[in-house]
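2024-03-11 09:14:02 DEBUG pipeline.ingest accepted 1 chain
2024-03-11 09:14:02 DEBUG pipeline.ingest length=206
2024-03-11 09:14:03 DEBUG pipeline.predict start
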Amino acid sequence: MNKILCPTDFSRAASNAADYAALIAEKTGVSLTILHVLHLPTLDTTETALAAGEVLGNLKREAADKLNAMVRHLSQKHQNRQVPIDYKVKEALLTDTIQEMTRHQGYDFVVMGTTGGGNSLEEILMGSNTESVIQNVKCPVLAVPLKSKPVNFEHIVYASNYEPEDAAALKLLFPLAQQFGAQVEVVHVCDTENTAKTHEIQNKLR
């Protein structure tokens, strides 16, 4: 792991995820960037574009102020380890921005908040954004539930269907677990017991 990216919309779930991201950055000794993405619809006249440009400028300043306060809070909370934390404001679509930053700017771990699939507009938007990033970004993504509290990882459960991709995923997971001194347990649930098949697949995953 080299650089952690944590998108935020300044919601409670996103702020909770930022606490997790800072904890991971502290344990691994890598840098953390808090990202806020602004998206405005395409405008077809010069007049509306100028008006939108003024609104966008105000939104960028407001976002920068909030991000600066968030970075100060996280830095003070983790001041004993001098966690390198900065922030960025981008104008684009969230998933596109994260794709670009993970492909070309060295970010290789994403931490995002999720609310658990509620019915409010905030929960629907956050859930869909997190799902889109998980499906489209080619690096590990940690989705942090709103009610989850940042604590040291001690026991990590990896749910496996014994697919070939599991071996690659576990190779990414083990170094993170090692940083926390956490135990990793691979769990597979099936309808019928097949001990021979289970041993065969487990050997492939080693």
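2024-03-11 09:14:41 DEBUG pipeline.report Helices lie at 12-28, 46-77, 94-104, 121-136, 164-180, 195-205.
2024-03-11 09:14:41 DEBUG pipeline.predict end
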